[in-house]
Amino acid sequence: MLLLDGNQLSSVIRKEILAKVIQFCQNDIRPPHLAAVIVGDNPASQAYVRNKMRACEEVGFASSLIKKAIGTTQTELLDVIAKLNEDNQLDGYIVQLPLPRHIDEHAINLAINPSKDVDGFHPNNFGKMALGFKTFQPATPMGIMMMLDRYKIETEGKHCVVLGRSNIVGTPIALLMSKKTKPGNATVTIAHSRTANLKEICQSADILIAALGIPKFVKGDMVKDGVVVIDVGINKMEDPNSSKGYRLVGDVDFDEVSKKASAITPVPGGVGPMTITALLENTWSAYSKLF
Ligand code: GUN
After folding, report:
1. Which of 172, 209, 215, 280 is most solvent-facing, going by the fewest CB within 10 Å?
2. What angle do CA 195, 175, 258 make, to 5 degrees?
3. So what's the pLDDT on residue 27?
4. What are phi and psi of 143, to 5 degrees?
5. Could you confirm whether 20 is annotated as catalytic?
């Protein structure tokens, strides 16, 4: 069984990004600059954003964190976005999701300048991705594709089952895996909460991508021998033996499924760090005005 180590691979790729920054940013040329906007005090979102800002430091990027109170109105958030769009010292930014319920996520994504949309959520960029143009791709699916590429996992002609159909992960990863690309060229099934015969569909997967947000949902008897498993889930589970009182588990029951898998991502340390590495790549692309 091959452990798809997102920490180790991220460390390699981030060193490559740092080398580009060091080479390019001599003679007082400013480095790439990423900003993140967070609304409210969701602890998981705060932790994710902190990790993104820390990763910027690792690769020599500048970073800014903009914290807004939970009661921030949609108009106030749109004002913040308008300022970020105009700031010519800023290459890219993200608005951390989920947003409070009184804010319309679609309205926010539409307001982001597509050339600074390093999350790839603006319809311009999402549409370009769907059509196979070069553009910003959402960070989690992009990180998964980078991982499949670097670990040389064969995807052509394979049956890839995606559990979950979110705009952030399920839908874009299904698109990317089905494209005439390498990695890609897979036959893709999107399964979700209304899917019938889910167990049988999972059992027919050569590649299983779990992004449904239910702890340890995928059990050993749901997969076939030799399956490649990408676990996108990050769920907190109570654990009195841990100093924090909890531990992180994925959407896959790792102990059971790893016995049958040919390759599998751990949680934590699999897809999570790759997501952040993909965001850094997108920020480099925004800085270099590639799209
Ligand atoms: N929340 C969970 N994943 C993501 C992501 O990739 N980007 C943003 N902005 N919010 C998220």
Report:
1. 215
2. 65
3. 84
4. -65, -40
5. no
Q: Model-level pTM? A: 0.98
In whole angstroms, what is the distance from residue 201 CA to residue 238 CA? 30
Structure token digits, residue 270: 């699999």
Residue whose structure tokens are 């196979």: 132
Residues 232, 209 contacting (CB under 8 angstroms)? yes
HEC states along 199-222?
A: HHHHHCCCEEEECCCCCCCECHHH
Domain boundaries, the chain: 26-113, 139-272
Among 91, 117, 119, 253, which one carries the catalytic annotation? Answer: 119
Q: In what order do the strands lie in the sheet with 33-39?
A: 62-68, 33-39, 92-95
The two beta strands, 207-210 and 228-231, are parallel
Q: Say whether 265 sits in a helix, a strand or coil.
A: coil
pLDDT per residue over 214-238, tens digit each? Answer: 999 999 999 999 999 999 999 999 9
Q: Which superfamily does 26-113 belong to? A: Leucine Dehydrogenase, chain A, domain 1 (3.40.50.10860)
Is the fold of 26-113 the same as that of 139-272? yes
Q: How far is the CA of 168 from the centre of ligand 1 (A)?
A: 7
Token code pair at residue 245 = 């009182």
What is the per-residue pLDDT across 197-206, written as a single tens digit (0 to 9) for each?
999 999 999 9
In this structure, the residue with its CA closest to atom 9 of ligand 1 is 96
Residue 66, Ramachandran bin (φ over 0: left; ψ between -120 and 50: alpha; else beta):
beta
Nearest atom within ligand 1 for CA of residue 138:
6
- Annotated catalytic, 96? yes
Both tokens of 156, joined, read 């052509």
